[in-house]
Amino acid sequence: MIIGHIVIGLPKEIIYSFHMPLFIIASGMLYKEKDYDKAIKDVFFKLILPYVICAFIVNSIYYGSSQSLGKAIINSAEQIFYSYEGYNGIINYPPHVNEIGALWFFPFLAIIRMLFRFLKKSSKGDELKLVFSVSVISFIGYLLGIHKYFLPFSFDIALFCIIFYYIGYILTQTKSLDKILSDKKLLLIIFIIWVLGIKFNEIDLAGRIYSNGVFLILTATCATIIIFKISQIIEKYIKHLGKIFAWYGRNSIYILLLHYAETMLVHYGKLHYFEGNTIWIYIIQILALKIAICTVGTLIINGIKKGIFYIKDHIKFNSLKKELS
Question: pTM for this one?
């Protein structure tokens, strides 16, 4: 995600063809039936609360340097509510509200999870009914996107992308992913579709750019499968690199929060100080710094979490020791 936000040209087109759909499909693959109370609690504490806290703190600092505290808080609250990224000709977006940046993904994913759970529950085990519901809702989201109508909390994008969540769900339910990844001929076809999709499609979910509808969905799905295969190869033959990628995957929520913070608060303009620097050297410099900041920040967060858990366990142990004595 960090790389996709900074590179340009063909590398960006390649990354954008899968980076958001991959997150959504992977999330759908991990879908589990839960009570509404448990599902709402998980979504709130794992997605909505981190989103609100991070956006509020970072935006208040950012706007507080040039505005009064009251105005900075109002601006932050509006950004959190609208949760918008990528203007791209949207016709009903309030022009005075700034974009939320990479954090748009948090409420978006929360909506997808709850929406799919509702559809799954409503279908009452009827798979055809679920397919129909997902298809209709995705088409509505597609229409909103191509006609540039925006809904707060990126709800319109969630409607379109429910199809990706369902694809992930189906891959797990049918246990078909391993079969696909082991079929070399099928993988070649999937790879060709991906390459053609990059050439003839433009994919930017945050920007509501959904060119070629069904072909876009096919392209993003094929791209995700190829990335799964590449990850499988890395895990098998380059184990240390696989462990590094796995660590970043497990900590993707923290990395995304930190990525937003460093994008808003760190100024990279001074990096372009070598005379004759190419744009790619400049990009590599910024990318290395961004990854370093997010990596160190994530290590610190994990260290703090371990410290908190250790203290809690120590307090419990001492309390139990007192009761027994």
Answer: 0.84
